[in-house]
Amino acid sequence: QAFKPDMVLVNLSNNDENEVLFKENLERFAQLLNKEKIPLIFVLEANSTESRPVLANHAIMRQVAEKYHIPVIDAHAYMATQEQTGILWWDNVHPTTYGHKVLGSYIYQNIKQQLTTL
To answer: What is the 3-state secondary structure (H, E, C) of the chain?
Structure first.
């Protein structure tokens, strides 16, 4: 709150293993930012398709997003469509420089689109 953001993006899931706590924290974000009238967007964290991504947490993020009418950017699904464009990943969860550019561009375009609807 001290930073007075114009918007908040929440990009979580790989390191969030406790699903109950994960959901509770997302709901706290949603409630606080709604009260403060700060737009919130959830980003479904991208993983290499060679790994087993934490799709359970993506489902939780979608549930909370639906409940609180939060836009969702599915970075994971998008990156899966970009596998043939270059080397995207250093390992299962960390993008290469190229991967970051692809991912960043996608998220940026989605944020611009969301700003026109806010």
So the answer is: CCCCCCCEEEEECCCCCCHHHHHHHHHHHHHHHHHHCCCEEEEECCCCCCCCCCHHHHHHHHHHHHHHCCCEECHHHHHHHCHHHCCCECCCCCECHHHHHHHHHHHHHHHHHHHHHC
Q: Which two tokens stand for residue 77?
A: 């699904």
Q: Which residue has the tokens 């959830």?
A: 42
Q: Could you tell me which residues are beta bridge partners of residue 43?
A: 11, 73
pLDDT value at residue 118: 61
> Is there a contact between 65 and 27 (Cβ–Cβ < 8 Å)?
no
For residue 22, what are its two tokens? 């994960």
Mean pLDDT is lowest, of 9-18, 26-35, 62-71, 108-117, for: 9-18
Q: Give the pLDDT confidence score for residue 51 in this predicted structure.
A: 64
Among residues 74, 78, 67, which one has the least CA distance to residue 24? 67
β-pair partners for 83: none
Pairwise CA distance, residues 35 & 84, whole Å: 43
